[in-house]
Amino acid sequence: MTSNLSEAIGSARSNPADHRIQESTAMRVLVIEDDKDAADYLVKGLRESGYTVDHAADGRDGLFLALSEPYDVMIVDRMLPGPDGLSIVESVRKASIPTPVLFLSALGDVEDRVAGLKAGGDDYLAKPFSFSELLARLEALLRRSGAVPENTFLKVGDLEMDLLARKVTRQGKRVYLHPREFRLLEYLMRHAGQVVTRTMLLENVWEYHFDPQTNVIDVHISRLRQKIDKPFDKPILQTVRGAGYKLDPAA
Predict the structure, then answer these.
(1) What is the Cα–Cα distance from 197 to 164, expressed in whole angstroms?
(2) 119: which of 21, 37, 86, 177 fits an S-S bond (Cβ 3.0–4.6 Å)?
(3) Is the dihedral of CA 181, 146, 243, 216 positive or negative?
(4) Secondary-structure percent of the chain, ordered helix, strand, coil, rounded to 5
(5) CA-closest candidate to residue 239, choices 186, 207, 209, 201
(6) Do both 20 and 105 map to the same domain?
(7) Helix 36-48 / helix 131-145 crossing angle, nearest 10 deg
(8) pTM attached to this predicted model
(9) HSE, side-chain direction, 13 A CA sphere, residue 137
């Protein structure tokens, strides 16, 4: 790893024009991805979503940028020429850099995910992926890191949630939720209008990183519907067949 690090720094210093950093108040993302089509897709989508993005096409350049520039979050492919993704993240953590890391990889088995998390990754998304899920995962990482302050009052249509008072109302009427139902609804409200997958719910609401073949989500979604939809004239919690769930006041 020492030789790889030296090569990375030497390469970057000898080619400064290849590493221009954009000045911006937007959240800064480093994308380390060697597949050109995938990288172009990521960079374009992230910039359109308001992020400032730097891209490295191999492990050497990615390692240099990760160690020398301040980023709010990193997206790292596992399989890269030069240092691979695991080695890059291990080096970043050894340098005491706490930047959140989302691994993005075609290696999606349980063992691969475990390896990514043990190397210092904060989240792991297997290819192919939904861009809306990628954005949601980035937002969650940024909130947890403190880069983006969490709102303490959420509003979706006529549904309102006060996180400080732990209070939910719809059309001005109090809705009483158990703690897990409250957390589930909070996650859905933070991603209103987006399709939220079962995996996202398991990882972010239940903190299961692998699907244990449980029906816990179905049970809680059903209970939540009974409380936020059934007493009112318009349902807002939608099931998107084959994909997940969506909180949509316009549905």
Answers:
(1) 27
(2) 86
(3) negative
(4) 40, 20, 40
(5) 201
(6) yes
(7) 60
(8) 0.59
(9) 25
The domain that holds 214 is classified in CATH as 1.10.10.10
Same domain, 106 and 204: no
Q: How long a stretch of residues is the chain?
A: 251
Number of domains in the chain: 2
Digitized pLDDT (tens) for each residue of the chain, 251 residues in all = 444 444 444 444 334 333 333 333 478 999 999 999 999 999 999 998 889 999 999 999 999 999 999 999 999 999 999 899 999 999 999 999 999 999 998 887 888 888 998 999 999 998 888 888 898 889 888 888 776 666 788 999 999 999 888 999 999 999 999 999 999 999 999 888 888 888 888 888 887 766 656 788 999 999 999 999 999 989 999 999 888 899 998 76
Q: How far apart are CA 6 and CA 63, in angstroms?
A: 10
Name 128's Cβ contacts closer than 8 Å, sequence gap at least 6.
none
**What token pair was written down for 34?**
């060697």
Cis peptide before 83 (omega within 30 of 0): no
CB 80 within 8 A of CB 102: no
Where does the chain show beta strands of DSSP type E? 28-32, 52-56, 73-77, 101-105, 123-126, 153-156, 159-162, 167-170, 173-175, 237-240, 244-247
Domain span holding position 108:
2-145
